[in-house]
Amino acid sequence: MIRYLYHIVVVVVLLLGSCCALVAQEAVVDTVRLLLPAKVEAIQTSTSPNSRFSVGIRDRLFTIEQLQPSNEQSLSDYLQRNSAVYIKEFGQGMGAYISIRGTSASHTSVQWNGMNVSMPTMGQTDFSHLPLFFFDAMELHIGGAGALYGNGSIGGSVQLSTTPLWKQGVSMQVKLGAGSFDARFAGANVRWSGNGWEGRTAALYSFAQNNFFFSNNTKIGKPRERQQHASSLNWGVLQELYKKIGARNRLSFHIWYVDFDRNVQPSVSNNDRPQTWTSLLDKNFKLSGTYRGNANHFRYSTQIGYARDYEKYEKEIIEADCVVGVVEGEYIRNRFVVKMGGNAAYTSPTGKAFESAAQEWRSDIYGLLWWKPTPTIMVNAGIRQSFVSALSLSSDPFVGAQWTFVQRGAHRLTIRGAFSQSHKIPTLNDRYWGGANSWLRPERGTTVESGVDYEAEAGGWCWSVNGTLYYSYVQDWIRWFPAGVVWRPQNIPVVKASGAEAAFSVKGSIERVKIGMDAHYAHTGITVKEGLWTHDPEVGHQLAFQPVHCFTAKANTSYRSVLLEVQSRYTGARTTNDIHDILPGYQVWNVQSAYTSTWCKHQCTFKINVNNLFNKDYQNVKFFAMPGRNYMVTIQYQL
Question: Does 119 or 416 have the greater pLDDT score?
């Protein structure tokens, strides 16, 4: 309890400090307003400067207007409600790992303002403790993206960003929430801008006891039990400073610290066995400085960053320090863009399992090309070559094109296609945990995809439909297997995936009532094509914990200041590590209602979320309970 009170005090002090800065800045801003004319600035519409080179595939951009109403959620919760990607969850607020097109979590790169978010020793990101509250935009890239985003982008990439708004004056957002299972949330976000400067301070605190009831399917009669040892505490701070230099150049600094302390939720069979309970503490610190310049047709940028990741599992501590530098240049001329860049990173982990040889250098050089030869055709190409200590890697090419062959009034029909190759370097855990696993080879993914997009607008309504077919395979897929009393990584020769994705969206209004609907579906078939041995029983079977079907849909309506939204997600059947053990599919419904009003001349929003509306009893991963019906109430105040 003392520890929790300490964290609350820290956040309160940070919030008070932000308020003091707000008051102090207000006087400065008032003076600036008298001296400077108003300016209208364009706001960045993409999270990644490389997204323009992803012609041929379908990226999804989530803007600040889309993220902000639900930014008390974790990134895993938000993606499950707004996309068809699969998130493998080990309980409520516990480990949550993304799977795009059936690939593993380490096959999706996650970057924040160009810096890798994944812990370098593990090579994957736990989406349950990435606070959506910190981010202004997110881009979900589905498909191979090695040429664009580098290592680990075999399945796709998630690009997160924080962006200056250059809105003159001071603005502030405060959000408070409380809900089932002793869930609490508090966050504040303060921005100030004037005279070519912009600053941002954000802080958050999130806690949940997670003492929900569940049916224990490992005991006779499936008795109802209360979940034990599943609490989680997440708090963090974000500080940013931006400076315009001249009319076209910008300097920025970013500091991010997140502390995630949780009890590891036990399996239902160990719920009443305290001797098996464990805990996990993660601390992530990131610091970066970036300079962006713009001279006529040439843009350039350089970035220096430092990251320190700390993880404590029971008494085992793993730490890693990483220093990275990036240089990029881009030439823009009419309908032609060419970009070249390079980066280098040095990582030094510490822990009982790592030797001095675990220190690692990585570097990339890459070139990207975008060309629009006609108003209806776009093509692009790219290539990246990576270098890493003691490993040999082939280059990652990317080629994409799209053609809008129907464009009549408000109707547009486009076909697209892309080919890409990507790689994943064995993580430091893969290469050095328990000894030097020198036999491991880098993973290599190849993807071919094609799709069609249709957009139309008529009578005040707009809608879009799109579909994608893809085929991909991964050579030397790394997987850990038991080897006596220990586990060792091995390269599975070939894993192949094929499937289809579809999405539908419609928006409009009847009188003054606004209506919106959208749906996303993913059909994923992923199997071992060539196993480790001749009669490998997994050959030809769907990989463990990979659903064939994922579907999510939501409908919302608003009238004046009142919003009502209903959302549902279906996750299909999955196997466990035993190919004959089937976990049944499940569907969960959620509903939210929000009311926005003006209080003291500022906007105030009251929202209530009811999750798992029909009290579905389900497990995402076998023997790990998920909560029944629960609620969360939030109040947001903006000035």
Answer: 416
Domain 2-638 fold: Maltoporin; Chain A (2.40.170)
Q: Is 540 helix (H, G, I), strand (E, B) or coil?
A: coil
| Whole-number Å distance between alpha carbons of 563 and 513 | 10
Please give the pLDDT value at position 2. 36
Rounded Cα gap, residues 140 and 79, in angstroms: 9
d(CA 542, CA 217): 25
Answer yes or no: are the C-beta atoms of 67 and 138 closer than 8 Å.
yes
Q: Which helix (H) or strand (E) holds 2?
A: helix 2-35
Q: Look at residue 1 in the predicted model and tell me its pLDDT.
A: 35
Provide the 3-class DSSP secondary structure of residue 22: helix
pLDDT band at 3 (very low <50, low <70, confident <90, very high): very low
Triad 15, 180, 275: Cα angle to 5°? 100
| Tokens 């800045």 found at | 25
pLDDT above 90 covers what percent of the chain? 72
Query: Is-contact 157 447, C-beta < 8 A?
Result: no
User: Could you give phi then psi for residue 17, rounded to 5 degrees?
Assistant: -60, -40
| pLDDT value at residue 18 | 35
In DSSP terms, 158 is beta-bridged to 110, 140
Question: By the 8 A CB rule, do 614 and 570 touch?
Answer: no
The enclosing H or E element of 334 equals none
Q: What tens digit of pLDDT does each residue of 135-154 get?
A: 999 999 999 989 999 999 99
- Give CA–CA dist 126/103, Å, rounded: 15
| DSSP labels, 156-213 | EEEEEE------SEEEEEEEEEEEGGGEEEEEEEEEEEETTEEEEEEEEEEEE----E
The mean pLDDT value for 509-514 works out to: 92
User: What pTM was estimated for this model as a whole?
Assistant: 0.89
Taking the C-alpha atoms of residue 180 and residue 627, their distance in angstroms, rounded to an integer, is 10
Residue 47's pLDDT band, with cuts at 50, 70 and 90, is low
CA torsion angle 134 71 602 253 (round to 10)? 10
Q: Are the C-beta atoms of 567 and 589 separated by less than 8 Å? A: yes
Number of Cβ atoms within 10 Å of the Cβ of 273: 12
Question: Looking at residue 356, what is its pLDDT?
Answer: 61
CB neighbours of 213 closer than 8 A, spacing ≥ 6? 224, 225, 226, 227, 628
Q: What local confidence, expressed as pLDDT, does residue 410 receive?
A: 86
Angle at 569 between CA 107 and CA 122, to 5 degrees: 20
d(CA 361, CA 355): 15
Q: Where are the alpha helices (DSSP H) in 36-134?
A: 64-67, 75-82
**Residue 217 tokens, joined:** 């399917």
Return the number of other C-beta atoms located less than 10 Å from residue 528's C-beta.
21
CA distance 407 to 414: 9
Q: Are strands 156-161 and 108-112 parallel, antiparallel or unpaired?
A: parallel
CA atoms within 13 A on the CB side of 536: 17
What type of residue sits at position 350?
T
Q: What average pLDDT is seen over the chain? A: 88
Please give the pLDDT value at position 321. 93
